[in-house]
Predict the structure.
Amino acid sequence: MSRELTTVAVVGLGTMGAGIAEVLARAGIGVVGVEKDDAGLRRGLGHLAHSTDRAVAGGKLTPAERDALLARIQAGTDLSAAAGAPLVIEAIDEDLDAKMALFARLDGLCGPETIFATNTSSLSVTQLAAATGRPARVVGTHWFNPAPVMDLVEIISTVVTDPAVLADLAALVERVGKNAVTAGDRAGFIVDALLFGYLNNAVRMLEAHYATREDIDAAMRFGCGHPMGPLALLDLIGLDTAYAILDSIYHTSRDHLHAPAPLLKQLVTAGMLGRKSGRGFYRYAGPDSPEIVDPAPPATVAGTTERPVHTVGVVGTGTMACGIAEVLAKSGYEVVVRARTDDKVAAVRKKVESSLARAVEKGRLTSEDRDTALTRLRGTTELTDLAGADLVVEAVVEDLAVKQALFAELDRVVKPGAVLATTTSSLPVVECAAATSRPGDVIGMHWFNPAPAMKLVEVVPTVLTAPDVVATVLAVARAARKHPVTCADRAGFIVNALLFPYLNDAVRMLEAHYAGVEDIDTAMKVGCGHPMGPFELADVVGLDVTLAIQRTLYLEFREPGYAPAPLLEHLVTAGYLGRKTGRGFHDHRR
């Protein structure tokens, strides 16, 4: 049974410490705040005044509530004032020696039952605990910045932490209205260990001139529903902070995926630290300004004119093919869908009609627009009926041999000058192009599922694709009211190359018994604003699909950290594929 902690000491009243003190005081808990000198104390009290005044202005606190909150915080510069609190939270600078020295001092001041909690984001809690005579009563409580706003607290246990201490901290976190997740003591804990590997991968992508900063960020916002793209998020965090966290994780894990990208170090050395310095991956209106002043214009292909497109052929009958056909018909294109049998032609028509009917019911489409779109859609079982198409989009099974055979057939029947596009999500587009006598006309056009709802289209030219083909596909995507991004022909393109290693890292974290499925999912949703946790997402995508894409990435890049996690292999072998089978990382049978 957990204890009710009525008083908490917070040592260090910087932005984070002051935020923690405010959260505790809001919940009716008495706070003893301690700073090292008068200047720090004035800054800390200033943080508290500024934050609570904003809360009043925003209607989140009344003036009386603000005054009562501030009255619960007794702040000073005498560390001995913390001696009577049953819990001391340190929130000083991220310096191991300084934290160890502080805990050694507190150890001599506080009673043996006092709990010590560190707010470190990347240092070893075990090492800090060893600096005290009470290692079983030392725990990590990693709050997120700004603490009054962010709803996640990671509780970090060491191999010797008393379970009763974990229960006390979990109860406290719940009492102050935050979400508690528990993890073992490993560099980066849950959120930073998963998040910064993904962010570092995005920097490497930019560093290789594989895609622009705008396209990398847009791909993850529109393709995954992330609130910010990875490069904009790094600017917000601070590139120096990101470098320090990555370096700390790397020196503990020796995982190359966390070795800071050279470009990150170069920007930090140049003083380009992100928003706080006014320039990082983006240039801002001034220090601490969110306003970007050097946005790139929408992607164009200089000096080229796109080819005219009036009729689009779609090859395939699955969910993706039906979605693409629907979107293009709604956008004014004549669409011919090629299926293998008359029954499948009828099934495509029925799926599109049902989807359009739902759009009308929800007020997203008028009945007239629905009827007009359906007049533009026809089906066929003959590939030769695509002969007059200006653009053909294949959306067949993700099998290279099947796609190559299809492109060889299209090469024979489709008119000269037509654009041939593949919707592959992970196979080499150039392999499809090489199956034709017109490789300059072949391009990747990776739509996201469901196509009517998802705004992103990845446009993937090969080294042989003609510039006007790129311009044509960009124009079609925009006419379909999608956001196109362009990247080189490399396994995973942008989204999958960033997303699936992150999912694989989460599986490795789970199989190491470092944290549980629910805690990892909660941490990434609450701590990062992701719409789904990694295991929820893998279950939706399908564990077999996740494994196949991760294998493709590993075979292309030969990066040891990309090797599929054994647990993922075992679950797929056992037939636990996610939602479609009722079991994956979660049980969907209930």
